[in-house]
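Most newcomers find our protein records easier to grasp once they have seen one. Sequence and backbone structure share a record, each on its own labelled line. To make this concrete, we reproduce a full record directly below:
***
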Amino acid sequence: MTDFPRLIATLCEADVAFILVGGVAATIHGSSRLTQDVDIVYRRDSDNLTRLERALAPHHPYLRGAPRGLPFEWSAATLKRGLNFTLTTDIGDIDILGEIVGGGDYERLFDESIEIELFGHRCRCLNLAALIRAKRAAGRPRDLEVVAELEALRDGLGER
Protein backbone atom coordinates (compact mmCIF):
# COMPACT_ATOMS: atom_id res chain seq x y z
CA MET A 1 0.00 0.00 0.00
CA THR A 2 1.42 3.36 -1.00
CA ASP A 3 1.76 6.00 1.70
CA PHE A 4 1.03 8.94 -0.59
CA PRO A 5 1.63 11.71 1.98
CA ARG A 6 4.96 10.24 3.05
CA LEU A 7 6.15 9.62 -0.51
CA ILE A 8 5.31 13.19 -1.57
CA ALA A 9 6.93 14.57 1.59
CA THR A 10 10.06 12.51 0.96
CA LEU A 11 10.48 14.03 -2.51
CA CYS A 12 9.58 17.58 -1.52
CA GLU A 13 11.71 17.68 1.62
CA ALA A 14 14.71 16.51 -0.45
CA ASP A 15 14.03 19.35 -2.93
CA VAL A 16 13.63 16.91 -5.84
CA ALA A 17 12.43 18.69 -9.00
CA PHE A 18 9.47 16.66 -10.29
CA ILE A 19 6.04 16.96 -11.87
CA LEU A 20 3.16 14.72 -10.84
CA VAL A 21 1.62 12.87 -13.78
CA GLY A 22 -0.60 9.80 -14.03
CA GLY A 23 -3.27 8.76 -11.57
CA VAL A 24 -2.34 11.17 -8.78
CA ALA A 25 -2.47 14.07 -11.24
CA ALA A 26 -5.84 12.85 -12.48
CA THR A 27 -7.14 12.71 -8.89
CA ILE A 28 -5.86 16.24 -8.24
CA HIS A 29 -7.94 17.40 -11.22
CA GLY A 30 -11.04 15.66 -9.89
CA SER A 31 -10.91 12.10 -11.20
CA SER A 32 -12.70 9.54 -9.06
CA ARG A 33 -10.39 6.70 -10.12
CA LEU A 34 -8.07 5.14 -7.59
CA THR A 35 -4.37 4.74 -8.18
CA GLN A 36 -1.86 2.48 -6.50
CA ASP A 37 1.32 4.45 -7.16
CA VAL A 38 2.85 7.87 -7.69
CA ASP A 39 4.03 8.76 -11.19
CA ILE A 40 6.51 11.60 -11.61
CA VAL A 41 8.55 13.12 -14.39
CA TYR A 42 11.85 14.18 -12.87
CA ARG A 43 14.48 16.70 -13.96
CA ARG A 44 17.56 14.83 -15.16
CA ASP A 45 20.41 17.17 -14.21
CA SER A 46 23.14 15.73 -11.98
CA ASP A 47 22.13 17.63 -8.84
CA ASN A 48 18.52 16.49 -9.08
CA LEU A 49 19.55 12.87 -9.74
CA THR A 50 21.61 13.00 -6.55
CA ARG A 51 18.70 14.48 -4.57
CA LEU A 52 16.36 11.79 -5.93
CA GLU A 53 18.83 9.05 -5.06
CA ARG A 54 19.27 10.35 -1.50
CA ALA A 55 15.54 10.89 -0.98
CA LEU A 56 14.51 7.35 -1.86
CA ALA A 57 17.59 5.41 -0.67
CA PRO A 58 16.41 5.06 2.97
CA HIS A 59 13.21 3.47 1.63
CA HIS A 60 15.00 0.67 -0.26
CA PRO A 61 13.89 1.27 -3.87
CA TYR A 62 13.82 -1.87 -6.00
CA LEU A 63 12.57 -2.65 -9.50
CA ARG A 64 8.87 -3.41 -9.19
CA GLY A 65 8.05 -6.90 -10.40
CA ALA A 66 11.69 -8.04 -10.49
CA PRO A 67 12.59 -11.12 -8.48
CA ARG A 68 14.34 -10.37 -5.17
CA GLY A 69 18.06 -10.88 -5.43
CA LEU A 70 18.34 -9.52 -8.95
CA PRO A 71 21.29 -7.13 -8.94
CA PHE A 72 20.06 -3.54 -8.85
CA GLU A 73 22.10 -0.54 -7.75
CA TRP A 74 20.07 2.47 -6.65
CA SER A 75 22.30 5.42 -7.50
CA ALA A 76 22.44 8.68 -9.41
CA ALA A 77 24.64 6.84 -11.94
CA THR A 78 21.89 4.24 -12.49
CA LEU A 79 19.35 7.03 -12.95
CA LYS A 80 21.63 8.75 -15.45
CA ARG A 81 22.11 5.56 -17.48
CA GLY A 82 18.38 4.79 -17.50
CA LEU A 83 15.31 6.88 -18.15
CA ASN A 84 12.12 5.38 -16.71
CA PHE A 85 12.00 3.23 -13.58
CA THR A 86 9.04 1.48 -11.97
CA LEU A 87 9.98 1.01 -8.35
CA THR A 88 8.65 -0.39 -5.15
CA THR A 89 9.82 1.12 -1.87
CA ASP A 90 9.11 0.68 1.82
CA ILE A 91 6.62 3.57 1.55
CA GLY A 92 4.97 2.53 -1.70
CA ASP A 93 5.23 2.27 -5.43
CA ILE A 94 6.61 5.06 -7.57
CA ASP A 95 7.25 5.39 -11.28
CA ILE A 96 10.06 7.83 -11.93
CA LEU A 97 9.94 8.86 -15.55
CA GLY A 98 12.54 10.80 -17.49
CA GLU A 99 9.90 11.54 -20.09
CA ILE A 100 6.37 10.58 -21.04
CA VAL A 101 4.71 9.89 -24.37
CA GLY A 102 2.66 12.84 -25.51
CA GLY A 103 4.47 15.23 -23.22
CA GLY A 104 8.23 14.90 -23.18
CA ASP A 105 10.69 15.56 -20.41
CA TYR A 106 10.65 17.75 -17.31
CA GLU A 107 11.78 20.89 -19.10
CA ARG A 108 9.15 20.52 -21.81
CA LEU A 109 6.39 19.74 -19.31
CA PHE A 110 7.26 22.47 -16.81
CA ASP A 111 5.29 25.16 -18.67
CA GLU A 112 2.32 22.78 -18.82
CA SER A 113 2.31 22.19 -15.09
CA ILE A 114 0.77 24.03 -12.19
CA GLU A 115 2.00 24.54 -8.65
CA ILE A 116 -0.21 22.91 -6.04
CA GLU A 117 -0.18 22.16 -2.34
CA LEU A 118 -0.43 18.46 -1.60
CA PHE A 119 -0.22 16.98 1.90
CA GLY A 120 1.22 20.27 3.15
CA HIS A 121 3.95 20.49 0.51
CA ARG A 122 4.27 22.65 -2.61
CA CYS A 123 4.88 20.65 -5.78
CA ARG A 124 4.07 20.68 -9.47
CA CYS A 125 1.31 18.77 -11.26
CA LEU A 126 0.66 18.41 -14.97
CA ASN A 127 -2.17 20.73 -16.02
CA LEU A 128 -5.43 19.18 -17.16
CA ALA A 129 -4.96 19.73 -20.92
CA ALA A 130 -1.46 18.22 -20.88
CA LEU A 131 -2.63 15.29 -18.76
CA ILE A 132 -5.44 14.53 -21.22
CA ARG A 133 -2.97 14.67 -24.11
CA ALA A 134 -0.49 12.38 -22.32
CA LYS A 135 -3.17 9.85 -21.33
CA ARG A 136 -4.47 9.76 -24.90
CA ALA A 137 -0.95 9.31 -26.30
CA ALA A 138 -0.20 6.47 -23.87
CA GLY A 139 -3.14 4.63 -25.45
CA ARG A 140 -3.53 1.94 -22.79
CA PRO A 141 -7.15 0.96 -22.12
CA ARG A 142 -7.03 2.30 -18.56
CA ASP A 143 -5.59 5.62 -19.79
CA LEU A 144 -8.24 5.96 -22.48
CA GLU A 145 -10.97 5.25 -19.91
CA VAL A 146 -9.80 8.14 -17.74
CA VAL A 147 -9.56 10.49 -20.76
CA ALA A 148 -13.36 10.61 -21.01
CA GLU A 149 -13.66 11.50 -17.34
CA LEU A 150 -10.93 14.14 -17.56
CA GLU A 151 -12.55 15.68 -20.66
CA ALA A 152 -15.87 15.87 -18.81
CA LEU A 153 -14.11 17.58 -15.92
CA ARG A 154 -12.41 19.98 -18.35
CA ASP A 155 -15.69 20.76 -20.10
CA GLY A 156 -17.39 21.34 -16.75
CA LEU A 157 -14.69 23.86 -15.94
CA GLY A 158 -15.14 25.56 -19.31
CA GLU A 159 -11.56 24.73 -20.42
CA ARG A 160 -10.56 23.72 -23.94
User: Anything to note?
Assistant: The radius of gyration is 15 Å. The chain has seven helices and nine strands. The first strand starts at residue 18 and ends at 21.
